[in-house]
Amino acid sequence: MNFAPFINGSYGVTLVFLLGLGGLTFARYRRAVRRLRAVETREAAR
Amino acid sequence: MNENVLNAGRTGAAGAWLHRFANPGRFLRLVRPALPWLAVFSILITGTGLVWGYGFAPADWQQGDASRIMYVHVPAAWVAMAGYAALAGCSFFSIVWRHPLADLAAEEIGPVGAGFTFVCLVTGSLWGKPMWGAYWVWDARLTSVLVLFFLYLGHIALIRAFDNPAHGHRAAAILALVGAINLPIIVYSVQWWNTLHQGNTISFTGNSKIYITMLYPLLIASVGFYLCFVTLVCARMCAAIMERRTRGLLLAAADRGA
What we know:
The complex is a heterodimer. Chain A is an all-alpha fold. Chain A has one domain. Chain A has one helix and no strands. Chain A has one helix at 4-45. The longest helix of chain A is centred in the middle third of the chain and has 42 residues, at 4-45. Chain B is mainly alpha-helical. Helix content of chain B is 78%, strand content 0%. Chain B has nine helices and no strands. The termini of chain B are far apart. Chains A and B meet through helix 1 of A and helix 3, helix 4, helix 5 and helix 9 of B.
């Protein structure tokens, strides 16, 4: 039996999950930092 | 002195200590500088474990190359269970000491843990087909892990199901604590029932049934997966704290303007 599709599929799913969730988390983190900095700067200027 | 008074004092001291370290602002100050390092180590160690397992670890004498799926399936399963244990721990802290940080951690652990459980189920299914001839069987181990996945989904749904977030956190914390009974069922399912899933291969008491050349990449991949989990949860918690702070500042500004 050719195991390659099952092995590649397992590693593929894992990598897509880790990279996908990592990317989404990084994007959310950066957005949160940027928004907080913008609001704090605006409040300090008042 | 009365033993109850002593115990109450001890609980109070522990509660005060936990409150001191469970402050969201202090958490942000401590964790934010460590996040880049955590991310780098997560990528390096996970990458090492996966490349070693995929390309360099020996094939199993019975299963052949299909055993390479172990290097993603087993770490994902361990992290899925450890994540749920952490979720139950946070829920306990939330119910007993009402820590805002425990609620926040529980909220952010849920989706990450559900993701790792999903990976565990999919990779297990892809391993099952060439070994058992079926992607899925209603075996005790597989079914209990599927229940774990549904518990995670239930927690994610319940925590967001109420208009008052405190009610959602309380209900989800109770679900997480009750669901923790599933963890020993997962671990011992292969001993309590006659399962198609193989028994425990790795033991910390010295009776491991895995050769060292396969154990090393497995342990490295596992450490990498644990680090990925911790990094993702910490980054999500930091983002959530900053989002709440932003919302608070905007609300205060709106109140002043009104």
